[in-house]
Amino acid sequence: MALSNPQVLAMIYAGANVTLAPLKFTVLQRESQVKAARQSKVHVTYIRAKALDHQERISLARQAFGRVHFDLS
């Protein structure tokens, strides 16, 4: 089941730790998810994160230090 970005944000703001496939979302959507995780103090894990550019991974990690994780498998 594919979730939309508003559904993901609602889960994050409700306090859920989420695991997402990053390519299903745009760069701006991923940034909004990371900001929501920082504000809600939950964790966001992106699976298959090798598909993301290294600079984008660094940028996302810096926006919410300790709240964003990348599974590079």
UniProtKB/TrEMBL annotation:
Protein name, UniProt field: Uncharacterized protein
Lineage: Bacteria, Pseudomonadati, Pseudomonadota, Gammaproteobacteria, Pseudomonadales
